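Hey,
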Amino acid sequence: MLIIWRSVVLVTTIFFVAGVFGQGIPEDRYAEEADSAKSLLRKAVDYYREKGDQAIAAFSRQGPFVDGQLYVYVIDTDGTMLASGGPSANLIGRDVSQALNDDLNKGFKEALALPPSDTIHQADYRWLNWQDGREERKRVFFQRVEDKIFSVGYYMPRSSEAEARALLDHVVEAVKESPQQTFERINRLDAEYLRDDLYAFVVDRDTERFVAHGYNLRLIGSDFRSVMSADRQPIGSQILEAAKRSSSGRIPYLWPNPVTRQNESKLTLFETTDRYIVSVGYYLDAEK
């Protein structure tokens, strides 16, 4: 029941939080994925218009309507899940709206009331990625046809430089205002300082030791100067020396991505306060 409830909430969220999790994501960063998702959506809509209700079963099978991480799911205007080629298949036949509180139902029903059209709508939400078992940002494109809403989405596991910069600025201000409280919240993995593959870490410039880390708590209190990258480069020393030369900067290196769980190229942005070095890094696309 817990799995079903989680899925219900996440399915519903797509319809009325558009843009909340997607802010700061450059449109061209996931342009290829967006094109593929919209293409699969159009393909599903065309197939339904050709076959009618006979087409619904095809959307829940592995086949032409599942393309890697992309899959089609269909909800009718009564709120019932009709088909899904992904994890939400466990909701097929269920009235999604019956499991929601008043606030969620309001947004859900507003979306279900959209008129049929050729318009493809877009929204962002969070969903469990069935490929890596982690909850990640996902962008969905959806279209109402007759009494059904057809949807296709894709995951966005990598944050942008703009998002990293925004989080860095936020953490720097918090450290200036209340350093100890901010360190405690970062170390508790407070969601305010932890956004998908973005997290902050803070180093005491006097002791050269970690005082906060939003991903690997074992590093807290350890010697920052001794930190090596995944390919054994002395990144701790590099950041410390760069911070002596400038109050802000950026350092590239190879580091484990907490979302993909792979070693990836990372660019870390840092800023200094009177006593601390505050850093947030973002992971680069594999082809960059």
